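Design a sequence for this backbone.
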């Protein structure tokens, strides 16, 4: 009862309000977590403000100017009037000022959570390393978007997880979320290139060609803006993707011609990336002193070793030169073999037909077939040939180049000759 009288003289509230204040105060004393304690103190501050406003509305009688100040704000010049029985010291006044400032900061933080990204300065305030990817249906909020320094840590975490446990669905979701946060903040720098290049390489590794194309199209725009990155490597991927994306049903057709011409035209206009290979070539040209610097030809992106290798692959594929294609496959740089895997099936199919026709009527050893088509074992070559309709003699490990109907006719002719 003594406590209630004390609160009643200090706050001027009814018994229900005093009971609620006591409950919140007890929770504040029991709270061990600083964030929970800060939240409860803000809740108590808002409740006291609402109670003061209600009391002012219920008591319309005019009051002297000294009492028209808010009940729970400390005057800046005059000392606060303390009820009888409570001593006001400098330490107590300072503690109350700090508490009032903390309550004000909580209110500002809650108001900032509702503001969108554009009004919040263009940068997010989320500090979560992992965030679920969701399509935006409204303006992004600053509290839900991660700033660049958090995104860098998140990308490192995705790479480390991919090396330990390559889960593509989880990695793709996190990389899409990183790309989305970069897009809504209009960040287009070297870190943006690194994020898109990482996603493109992982997509190639698992065979997700559409996702690779999505990343590659953004990278092409970033490279044209002058942002540094692996320009030569992804220019080579673009050439190979031009063949893969056309969905070739036969080798050497005219279907990929338009896509290849467009890709080559874009490469011919681009300047080379200022990477280690380009710098080494420029140093060699200066050391040889074959021509003055003014007469030296402009080094285009087409001279990059990855691009040269991709052009050789395209030429071998369109000419149905499977032996050259297999040679290039063995020495393919970076992630190029993953795109060449998409071109191997139609090329092997054409090569098998040519070898069966060229070796007829002799039998074709499976060892020669495996070596010519780039199979690791003879069993793999036999399975491929059987799947394509060829006759495989597993006892002798050879391919029968004569068709079944022709072999039957030859056996009949031999029987007739023996009878005669």
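Sequence:
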């Amino acid at each position: 009862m003594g406590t209630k009288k004390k609160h009643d003289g200090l706050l001027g509230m009814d018994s229900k309000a005093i009971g609620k204040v006591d409950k919140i105060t007890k929770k504040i004393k029991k709270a061990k977590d600083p964030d929970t304690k800060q939240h409860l103190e803000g809740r108590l501050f808002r409740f006291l403000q609402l109670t003061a406003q209600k009391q002012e509305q219920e008591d319309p009688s005019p009051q002297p100017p000294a009492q028209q100040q808010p009940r729970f704000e400390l005057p800046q010049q005059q000392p606060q009037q303390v009820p009888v029985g409570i001593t006001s010291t400098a330490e107590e006044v300072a503690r109350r000022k700090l508490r009032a400032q903390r309550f004000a900061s909580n209110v500002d933080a809650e108001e900032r959570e509702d503001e969108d990204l554009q009004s919040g300065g263009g940068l997010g305030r989320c500090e979560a390393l992992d965030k679920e990817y969701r399509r935006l249906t409204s303006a992004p909020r600053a509290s839900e978007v991660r700033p660049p320094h958090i995104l860098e840590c998140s990308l490192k975490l995705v790479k480390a997880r991919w090396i330990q446990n390559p889960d593509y669905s989880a990695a793709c979701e996190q990389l899409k979320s990183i790309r989305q946060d970069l897009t809504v903040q209009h960040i287009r720098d070297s870190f943006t290139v690194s994020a898109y290049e990482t996603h493109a390489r992982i997509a190639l590794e698992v065979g997700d060609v559409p996702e690779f194309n999505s990343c590659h199209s953004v990278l092409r725009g970033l490279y044209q803006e002058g942002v540094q990155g692996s320009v030569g490597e992804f220019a080579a991927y673009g050439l190979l993707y031009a063949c893969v994306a056309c969905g070739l049903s036969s080798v050497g057709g005219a279907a990929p011609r338009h896509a290849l011409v467009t890709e080559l035209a874009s490469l011919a206009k681009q300047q080379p990336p200022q990477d280690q290979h380009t710098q080494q070539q420029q140093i060699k040209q200066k050391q040889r002193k074959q021509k003055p610097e003014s007469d030296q030809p402009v080094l285009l992106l087409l001279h990059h070793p990855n691009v040269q290798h991709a052009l050789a692959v395209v030429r071998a594929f369109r000419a149905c030169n499977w032996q050259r294609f297999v040679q290039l496959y063995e020495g393919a740089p970076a992630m190029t073999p993953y795109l060449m895997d998409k071109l191997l099936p139609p090329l092997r199919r054409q090569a098998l037909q040519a070898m069966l026709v060229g070796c007829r009527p002799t039998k074709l050893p499976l060892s020669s077939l495996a070596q010519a088509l780039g199979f690791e074992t003879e069993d793999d070559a036999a399975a491929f040939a059987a799947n394509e309709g060829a006759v495989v003699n597993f006892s002798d490990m050879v391919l029968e180049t004569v068709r079944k109907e022709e072999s039957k006719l030859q056996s009949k002719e031999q029987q007739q000759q023996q009878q005669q």
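The longest helix spans residues 34-58.
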